[in-house]
Amino acid sequence: MTADTKFLAGGDGTILASFTSLDPTVSSSNRVNELISCCATSKESLSTLYTMFKSSVFAVAFSITADYHLAEDCVTETFVRLTQIKRFSAAKGDGKGFILKIARNVALELRRRYKRDLNDFIIQSYGEAEQTVEDSIYINQLLKHLNDKQKQIVVLKCCAELTFKEIAKIMKCPESTIKSRYKKAIAILQEKAGADQ
Amino acid sequence: MKNNNLNGNQEFEELLKNKMDELSSSVDCFDKISARAFPEKNADFFESELTVSGLENVTGKRRRFPVLKWVSAAAALVLFIGIIPKTAIVNNIMTNMNEKAEKKLYSEIIEEINEETASFDYTYYDVYLDYYITNDMLVHPLYSCPFEENKNKDVKVRIFVKQCGENLTNQLYAVEYSGEYEDENFIAAADSRAKFTQQELNDIQKSTMPFYGRVSDCADTVEGNFDVNVMGNTVDKEGYAVSAASYSSLCYFKTDNNEIYPLTTSVLYYHRGIIEDNVYYYYDIKSNYLVSKFDDSPVINTLDISNSDFLWENSLYYDGTSAAPQNNQSAFSRVELFGNEKTTNADNFSFYFINPGMTHTEKPLKMRLYSNYSHTLVSNIDAPVSNTSKLNHVIYFPQKLMELSSYAPLTVEFKASGYETSKQFYADDLGFASKYSDDMTEQIQNNISLLENDIDKLKDEITKIDNSIINIHDLPLNTSEKAVREESLEKLTEEKQNKEKLIEEKSRQIDEYENQMTLINLTGPKG
Asked: How far apart are CA A97 and CA A92, in angstroms?
């Protein structure tokens, strides 16, 4: 809800600020928010959310944990936590950002918990399938020159297709910082790619 | 592994996305999620009241259901509660157990912060923990530091304040952290007792109860508590030269009884000495709200709260132990200042004030006020940290000083870590107690009333035009008169648009007047 602030004057130099309310407008098109609101009770809503955001959540988790199995656990944990949310505002919230924020927090939590097992960056568990192993190694190699934050920003931008503004909200950083970090990350990747070639 | 396709941003983005999509396509955990989110209560294994987790340990070895163990534990507890006399120790243990059960866990606070900041509007600012502990009154007038001292001097606190529209509330969170603000760097977290629901926020925004604000309250208090010595310095009642300032902080305050007030908290603070940098402050605080509005004499109530009341609900370290401070280490000490007001007029006031502004930086700022005439230091004082408090922040200095210096401009130097700037203030920027403000307010109020009358008239005229348009539409269309009617409709529509533009223009003028009045009353007149 938004409000127009109006300043009015009373006697004796009093400053009065009154509020003209604007009717809350729940955007009917904001399906994600509504799905989040009812996913605690509706398996169908949860399933739709899972289909919509599985890839993005996994991408965010993988960029943080660099581990296929941990990222998979993050996906599970993120959607389970989503069903336990009690205070999400369907009228106001940013559904996608909200889910990815949970994913990021869960991934950071799991990484902290399993930090000792993740010391070796390259030798990780990647799942059994050959393709999965190859893809995991490929992505980790691609992102290995970036620091933690750069990795997350690049993945949120490229894989979750978020705007810089949305990323800024998730990472609690100014938008300009996100932009400059992204620019720097891309420059590093291009430079390293050139060196590899 | 080589990346031979990486030639530009676009290609890289696509490449990464494709690979990540490929990788995530093999993830299939919905059944697991579904089983955890929607456990099937009638599943077969539930009938035996045994679950897999209850039966197996990590090695998969079957273990015995510990019925006997639980029965004995329950029996022991019954004996303990029923037979052992209710000594102080027992009572304490029981009380602590209850308290712990009610207390939140650290992870729950963090989760709540994440949820809240994602779903609602919050403003936040960072301060060093040391600074918050010592200068709590400059960080928040009502919420002192919820965390105890840390040996690491680089530890910071991020304070989140929930917003209601453009205004603040007293739903706060604080996170103690080291290095970057990252979950893994968090040390402790705290949440305020007050929590606003969406419904309450909606109700507040629908209500028309305004905030009370009158800078002359503080200016009159300065007149009543301080004097000017022969040297032209501000002195307290004991004759010590002082540097004094005040600020007001507006917020919707929710009490423990769930009453919500549009609260204006004013803080008047000063320290002895003008040159010293490491200072010990004296302050007084009052929190007022309007009971009735739009009267000639508004009724004001005072809410008896202060920074010394610990308004935080929980303050916990990562491991769940209390992070709340054991004792108060604030450099601010409360004295009685409000209540000693002195009403002045344009002929007998002793102090001017200026609003230094600097609302674009939420850094702890040190301010030094110089007279350009004699290049002497007039005041040396710290500014409140938050931008909303800086908006209503004023520094006081003797009127005599301006007289002696022939109203030469003043310079305020602002210093923060890695930041230094200065601003010039001229005679037109100065404010003084009530008289001038009230005269100006009355004049502006008259102008606003005139504009509001004009707008009402214009709205009536628009209604008449609307009626005419409807009447024309209702008339049966005659081919010969069609062109004439179309023309009339066009003219009326144009006339309506012009009047709407006039309303817009007049509303804009009202906004300007109201802003001007806010500045006069809260921060002194602007040139």
From this structure: 12
Q: How many domains, in total, are found in chain A?
A: 2
- Is B363 a residue whose pLDDT tops 80? no
Q: Which backbone phi and psi does B406 adopt, to 5 degrees?
A: 55, 40
Contact criterion met (CB below 8 Å) for B314 and B109: yes
A5 part of a folded domain: no
pLDDT at A125 over 60: no
Chain B interface mutation, best of A14, A33, A150, highest count of B Cβ atoms under 10 Å: A14
Of A76, A87, A94, the CB nearest to B32: A76
Record the tokens describing residue B296, joined without a space: 């000639």
Q: Which has the closest alpha carbon to A100: A68, A133, A64?
A: A64
**Cβ–Cβ of A3/B21 closer than 8 Å?**
no
pLDDT for B41 equals 53
What was the pLDDT predicted at A122?
44
| Residues shown for chain A | 197
Same domain, A157 and A106: no
C-alpha span between B169 and B251 (Å, rounded) = 5
| Verdict on whether the full-model pTM lies above 0.80 | no
Among B164, B382, B431, which Cα is nearest to B276's?
B382
The first and second tokens of residue B48, run together, are: 């035996």
**A86/A158 same-domain check:** no
Please check whether residues A35 and A54 belong to one and the same domain: yes
Lowest mean pLDDT among B20-34, B66-80, B94-108, B278-292: B66-80
Q: Are residues A43 and A111 in the same domain?
A: yes
Asked if the Cβ–Cβ distance from B29 to A159 is below 8 Å, we say no
The CATH number of whichever domain residue A117 belongs to comes to 1.10.1740.10
- Tell whether A21 is covered by a domain: no
Closest-CA distance of chain A to residue B226, Å: 23
Residue count of chain B, please give it.
527
Q: Is the ipTM of this complex over 0.90?
A: no
Q: Which of A53-67, A83-97, A111-125, B121-135 has the lowest mean pLDDT?
A: A111-125
With the CA atoms of B496, B499, B504 and B510 taken in that order, what torsion angle do they form, in degrees rounded to the nearest 10? -150
Q: Is residue A4 part of a domain?
A: no
Residue A158 touches chain B, beta carbons under 8 Å: yes
Domain ranges, residue A62: 29-141
A130, A157: one domain = no
The token pair that represents B258 in the structure block = 């769930």
- Identify the domain boundary among A101, A118, A141: A141
Is A111 within the bounds of a domain?
yes
Whether A82 and A153 map to the same domain: the answer is no
Nearest to B212 among A3, A14, A92 (CB): A14
Q: What is the DSSP string of B468-501?
A: HHHHHHHSPP-HHHHHHHHHHHHHHHHHHHHHHH
Compute the nearest-CA separation of B183 from chain A (Å). Answer: 7
Residues in chain A with CB shorter than 8 Å from the CB of B111 are 105
CATH code (residue A165): 1.10.10.10
